From TrEMBL:
Keywords attached to this entry: Hydrolase, Protease
Subunit structure: Binds to the N-terminal domain of the chaperone ClpA.
A Pfam family assignment: ClpS
Keyword Hydrolase: yes
Domain Adaptor protein ClpS core: 46-124
Family: Belongs to the ClpS family.
Region (Disordered): 1-36
HAMAP family: ClpS (MF_00302)
GO molecular function, one term: peptidase activity
Function: Involved in the modulation of the specificity of the ClpAP-mediated ATP-dependent protein degradation.
Protein name: ATP-dependent Clp protease adapter protein ClpS
GO BP terms in the entry: protein catabolic process; proteolysis
Amino acid sequence: MPGTAHAVTGRVPAPTTAMATGPGGTGGNDDRSNTAIITRTRTRTKRPSLYRVLLLNDDYTPMEFVVLVVERFFNKSHEDAYQIMMHVHQNGVGECGVFTYEVAETKVTQVMDFARKHQHPLQCVMEKK
Ligand code: TYC
């Protein structure tokens, strides 16, 4: 109870400075001096950089194979996959999705491995947004 004399010393303890609590806060009370140190670390969240994963057109990869790739690795419906394939076919390049670095890198590797396994020259790349 603040303001009450200590039973042995007769001293009235100095009020304890507020203790920081919760995330990022630490409170420490030094009971010899009745002082407290408050530290507070700021919670800083950084949004991750995003990367587009792109397919490149070529003259040899079958259209149906590209549609399958877009469905399988980018979780698109058959209709959306067909539209993306046609966009790449007509424009030379097209976006299949936007991901954080490691996810984008994984998609590129999966597509390139799958194309190579089926002996198609399909190219997949990523670029920072
Ligand atoms: N141009 C290819 C063809 O006519 C089809 C194709 C589409 C290839 C998209 C690659 O990323 C691609 N068979």
